[in-house]
Amino acid sequence: MNSKINSPFPAEIPKGLTAVNKNYYFKAVLAVLAIILFFALFLSLVALTSYLVFLAISYPIPVVNKFTVIVKLGAIAGAGMLLVFTLKFLVKIRNHHPENRIEIDSVDEPELWNYVLEICKHTGAPKPKYIYLDPDVNAYVRYTNSWLSLIMPVKKELTIGLPLTQCLELGEFKAVLSHEFGHFAQKSMRIGSYVNTANTIIHNLIYTRDSWDNALERWKKSDIRVAFPAWIISPVIWGIRQLLKLFYLALNILQSSLSREMEFNADKFAAMSAGSEAIVSSLWKLNPAADQLNNVMGHLFNASKLQKYTPNLFYHFQVALDAEKPQLEKALGELQTDSTGHRIYFTTSEISKAHMYDSHPPNDEREKSVKTPFVACEADTRSPELLFGKLTKWQERLTKLVYLNYWNCKVKEVSDVAEIEQIIQTENAEKVVLKDFHNTFDNRYVMLPKADHIRSKSADHINTSPRQWENIKDDLNNLMEPVREIEKLLEHAVLIHNGTAKQASFTFQDKQYDKQNVSAGYELLFKRRNELFDTGFTKWDENLFVHLGAAARSKDELEVFLRRINQHHRILKICKKLDFAKNDVLSHLEFLQKKEEVSTADLNEFQRVINEHVEELNRLQLEFHQEPFESLSNIETSIEFFKVLNNGRDFKRMKGEMFESGDFDQLMNQIHGAVYQAQRLEQKNLSALLIYSKVAQ
Question: What is the C-alpha to C-alpha distance for residues 278 and 271, in angstroms, rounded to an integer?
Answer without folding.
Answer: 8
